[in-house]
Amino acid sequence: MQSAPRSDSRVTAGIIALAAVAVLVGGAFVGLILESARDPSGALAAFDSYLLRVARFTLWQALLSTLLSVAPALMVARALSRHPNFPGRRLILQLFTVPLALPAIVAALGILALYGRAGYFAGVFAGLGGGEWPGIYGLSGILVAHVFFNLPLATRLFLEALGTIPADQWRLASQLGMCARPAFRLIEWPALRAALPGVAGLVFMLCITSFTIVLTLGGGPAATTLEVAIYQALRFDFDPARAVVLTLLQIALTFIVVVALMRLGANTVGDANLPVAPRRYLSVGRLESVLNTCLIALALLFVAGPMLATVFSGLEADLGRLAGEEAVRRATLTSAGLALLAALLSVTLSLALIASRRALALRRRLGNAMSLLEHAADTGAGFVLVVPPIVLGAGWFLALRNVTDVFAVAPVMVVAVNAVMAMPFAVRTIRPAYDAASERHERLCLALGISGWSRLSLIDWPSLRRPLATGFAFAMALSLGDLGAIALFGSDSVQTLPYLLLARMGSYRTADAAGLALLLGLVCLMLVVAADWLGREGKS
Predict the structure, then answer these.
(1) What is the pLDDT of residues 264-275, one digit of tens each?
(2) How far is CA 499 from CA 142, 233, 527, in A?
(3) Is 334 exposed, middle or buried (0-12, 13-18, 19+ CB in 10 A)?
(4) For 484, which of 42, 214, 286, 359 is 20 to 30 Å away at the CA?
(5) Which of 189-193, 224-228, 290-294, 529-533 has the lowest mean pLDDT?
(6) Where are the transmembrane segments (predicted)?
(7) String of b and e for 144-172 (b: at least 16 CB within 10 Å)?
(8) What is the mean pLDDT of the chain?
(9) Helix, strand, coil shares, percent, the chain, to 5
(10) What pTM was estimated for this model as a whole?
């Protein structure tokens, strides 16, 4: 039996990747600690009624958003599960992946175009209310946007849970003559109940760390979350003490939620690929079929509405003029360049962590105990979920403001933050393929002494080519649509498309914002479609 080499370049690469993540996260914490130590009285003074009100609203909107997303998702998932041959079922599931690819600011504009004061449904709502429709800003807009994003995700996760029910149970239920109600209680509900805590926790975490949605749809101090308050404290009020307290509170809340998710075994990334639905042996009654069809149709209209509104309102803009603007061209090139670098860095760091974990696992298989380094390589990418992008940006903003011009380092910070934030998705895409390739080739590489770049280019590359491309495309789409880091570090000299879009919204140039949203949404959607296609090709 071959023994593992004493030194492995994969372990060294993993240590470098972990160090890079630690520097980014640790540097943000250092900035927060130094700022709080510089002005402890200011930090204590920040504990006031405003802080409590923001924290309470953050938890309240996340709780309501979770309830309004998860409860309907249970019913929609069951309806889709009960009708595996529903017309257009595959298309509906593919449509439900679009919100995962759509930048939050694009979806917010679509919701405003549909339900806003001048939206397509404004006249209908005004007639129903007997007066002028005030729009959807505030808590109602935040809830609608969160449900738009999380209802499809929760539906797919619940449908995945229902797909794990053995076909033997359905066959036995058919033989016993079960109808819909006992079948739900005895067969479907146990699977849904097992998935419910993890799905609800995941949605709650996504809502509690929502930044762009609340920034664009919050509508004032009464509808402000912790992340938006951090942004306002640094960019508008320039109150570092308050920003530190808000940031620490945000970290504490997200840490509690992520720990709870880990205890529940929740899927913190979500999976765009569903198992093939097992054959159903129970017949569906006419009344149940009608109700399920209505449920699916309502969910489809709710998800498709903002997308169609984004397209229609974007086409109404003067796209030719926008394409000719120097600011738009510069923002497009900046977005593409930063997203390209962020995706490349994200995939590189993810691959280094995956390879390091595999090498350390091989050593453990040969008799060594699991080391702290292996545990860090296994969970390092997921740890960044505890610290949202706006928190990382706030920490570094405070750390650098006394050292250099914070706006001059905007490209570096945007690339670094977006790369690390995309790592959990990249790891999920690349890791299965790397582990499978390692199982096939590990002994041969040890016997022939193939390692390092030679192994990667000659042995691993054929198996990793498509997963790496998938992770790269998805990471690039996430980076293109992100507003977290650039919201703090952006300026007139460094603007991305989301930053320019937000600026046009702030100056009430809604037509220009709609055109930019259409452009940004289409680019991100094409990237995610390419990632999905590459992933499916890799499985065939």
Answers:
(1) 655 554 444 444
(2) 20, 18, 20
(3) buried
(4) 42
(5) 529-533
(6) 12-34, 59-80, 92-115, 135-153, 194-220, 240-261, 289-312, 332-355, 376-400, 406-427, 468-491, 511-534
(7) bbbbbbbbbbbbbbbbbbbbebeeebbee
(8) 82
(9) 80, 0, 20
(10) 0.84
